[in-house]
Amino acid sequence: MIADPTISSHIEGLANTYNESVSPVGDRCVKVRVQSADSDRVVGGFANAWPSELGDRPALWIPASSIAEARLEATAGAKTVSDSRSLVTSPVLLAVRPQLKDALAQQTWATLPQLQSSPAAMNALKLPGWGTLKLALPTHSNGDAASLAAEAVAAAAAPSGAPATSGMSGVNSLLRGQPKLDDAELGTAMDALLNASDPATAPVHAVATTEQQIFQRGTSLDDAKSSLAGWLPPGPTATADYPTVLLSGDWLEKEQVTAASEFARYLRKPEQLAELAKAGFRAEGTTPPSSDVTSFSQLAAPLSIGDNTMRVTVANATAAPTGSPAVTIMLDQSMPTEEGGKSRLANVVAAINGRLKALPDTASVGLWTFDGTEGRSEVSTGPLAEPVSGQRRSDALTSTLDEQSASGGGAVSFTTLRMIYNEALSKYREGQTNSILVITTGPHTDQSLDGPGLQEFIRGAYDPAKPVAVNVIDFGSGSDRATWEAVAQASSGTYQHVSSSASPELTTAVNTLLG
């Protein structure tokens, strides 16, 4: 089995005890072996090659939250999960110095983005000299706390009745305003918070993490009460719910499935839950340990932002915070190949739509499509909030993308890019990162422009004073690859080959290159 790093050592201890007395399953003697890995490695392993250092694919997985399970199902299909239920929980708090906890008393998840971005925000909290909130959101060894905090901020910042994605601008403000640290490890952020001699000038003022992690850090401090506290924002509680996810697939034998289910039941027995509670997790029927840094107070109802699709969308957008780009999407319609139960084009459209929801209204986006006959402008490039044919440009883009149908028979990609590049230069948007995002399978079928000709055109047209990067997501494996790599390089863009559209690799590429 695999468990999140924030709980794996505790599960391993329980597994060792279990293995001493476990009965055979059928005619097999089955032992539970615990590997520690964060959710990105597990989800990525199901999408692509499984990391050999993690051993075989697991029968049981305990991620930090059901966000990870939603991402796995989006990648490998719902059939991969046969059962899932929460084992223990831990709410997301801000780890802060005690004086900041008192100052945050009237704040909420919705007010954090302003505190993060306004230069003298802390003056209003009667903390002169503190500057901004300096909230760090570590993504490693932090129990999905960054993604869970993002859900809470998005839900709080969204207009009443609107989906959580409508509040992603607040999340982006938090992410863009993060303190610059050496890495994304929780320990690095906590050290920066606690080791400064003067809290006001510390590189970090707050860290989004779980109550359990704050409790654990408190046990290692000499004078914990005067140096560390946990602040719980009011309202619905962002919660790491640590589900026991029983997996199903052809890599498992029947005895492994049975053993995984029995171990999951074992973990829910009072004795095991009591052990997990001692480590700072909340578990049904247990008493929390005493702590100088957190009170284990009663919680409001858990936060819910919608179905798994919504959770995956917010998580993906959080993984790659947005700027305010000016980008024209150039989409190949000749992508009928089925991957993950849908056409490649449908998977690409879903990835683009997910990213569009996270972009700020000031982002400028347009859409061209091309097939074997011609390239055509579908939606002109401009601010997402700007009206186009009686609707917001963002809505026009989404509806146009949803109407796309996969075709076969070639792709006039080179001549289409030439048209778009000339237009992007003539309508260059100052103060924004200007680019063209080419998404194609190929091979090109242009009669009037070959690969060397396209490269020569881009090298001649590229203007350092008005840089327009050509970024390429390429599913193809033919002769076009060298051309696309050269075009991206000549325009200071990025080339990325993606093997399958039914993988997190595509989502990451779209999130990164769309802005």
Automatic annotation (TrEMBL):
Source species: Mycolicibacterium neworleansense
Stored SMART domains: VWA
Region of interest: Disordered: 375-405
Protein name in UniProt: von Willebrand factor, type A
Domain spans labelled VWFA: 326-513
Regions of compositional bias (Polar residues) in chain numbering: 396-405
